[in-house]
Amino acid sequence: MRERIGILTGGGDCPGLNTVIRAVVKCATKHGWETIGFLEGFEGLLEPVRYRRLDYKEMDALLFVGGTILGTSNKGRFAAKTGHGETHRIPRDILRRAKANIQQLGLRALVVVGGDGSLTTAQQLFEQGVPIIGVPKTIDNDLAATALTFGFDSAVACATDALDRLRTTAQSHDRVMVLEVMGRYAGWIAITAGISGGGDVILIPEIPFHLERVCAKIIEREREGKRFTLVVVAEGAREQGADFVTAGGAEASREARLGGIGAVVAAGIQKRTGKETRVCVLGHLQRGGAPTSFDRQLCTRFGTRAVQLIAEEKYGHMVALRPPDTIAVPITEAIGRLRLVPLEGDLVQTARALGISLGD
Ligand code: F6P
Hints:
By secondary structure, the protein is α/β, with parallel strands linked by helices. The chain contains 10 helices and 13 strands. The chain folds into 2 domains: 4-151 and 289-333, Rossmann fold, CATH 3.40.50.450; 155-287 and 342-353, Rossmann fold, CATH 3.40.50. It is 36% helix and 18% strand. The strands form 3 sheets. Strands 3-2-1-6-7-12-13 form a 7-stranded mixed beta sheet, with helices on both faces. It has a 4-stranded parallel beta sheet with strand order 9-10-8-11, with helices on both faces. A two-stranded antiparallel ribbon has the order 4-5. Bound molecules: 6-O-phosphono-beta-D-fructofuranose. 6-O-phosphono-beta-D-fructofuranose binds next to loops.
């Protein structure tokens, strides 16, 4: 029998998952290994075990297809993150059963493609003796130990395109347009797209904002004859002294769903300035569709490097980008500490130098 490896995609999906799967399968084939893909994230590891053989010949079509052909899940029995990012241990029995099923299938290694939550679960499986290699995925770009996660560039491209579209309609109607973007507790998407798309105000979780300062910026623009304003709000942004705005009720086996701050900001602006204000929640458009060319090459490099790490038996490691190269880092260096937008970093400084209001 040919040697086998496994792969699964965990957490929220994003553009580029299929591109990673394609690279892993192609490279594994070169090593003479068969690849099987577990379905619905970690859930596929438990009885009834669900997986499919990934045929090398099917892979070419996957290069630019969004989503994941394996399915994924960001809740359930393997959810290591709940509430507002609280970490907890997966029950021992679940880990033990998953390990036994992986051994039963004779897998040489398991590639876990995921963000902070999925890699936290992966680390717990590794500690139980499962040979794991991690690949860093998330549109939020909040994973430590890698310069970038894949999916982020595609999400930024989507948000930038939205700002380009909102600009023309804002200008036509002399309105304030508020764009709410994803990113959980990090403002990477908001500040990167905000700068690329010419936002006038950018509100990120790292900098609690004051509505009066936001309104002051809008009034200042009016005085300069600029009768429209683009405001970008990260879903995790919050007013000084206020709590996160969440969507829907809390569920025990998943992280809190952020959302709704855009509407709060828009209502506050309209009330204080009298300017007609509209809100657009970009939502899952940021997670769908084809990966950008940047993400395609990043995913391909990550997938290729993951297979190389299996050949080197560097288990318990995650592929990371340390420009210009990809490297291996212990998964423990990537999890449990969110990588936030640095307040003294180039993005924040660029925004300030341009006169963009960060609401502080
Ligand atoms: O982590 C990716 C992400 O898209 C976040 O930006 C967002 O808060 C969350 O997932 C949304 O999750 P769901 O798809 O469960 O609504």
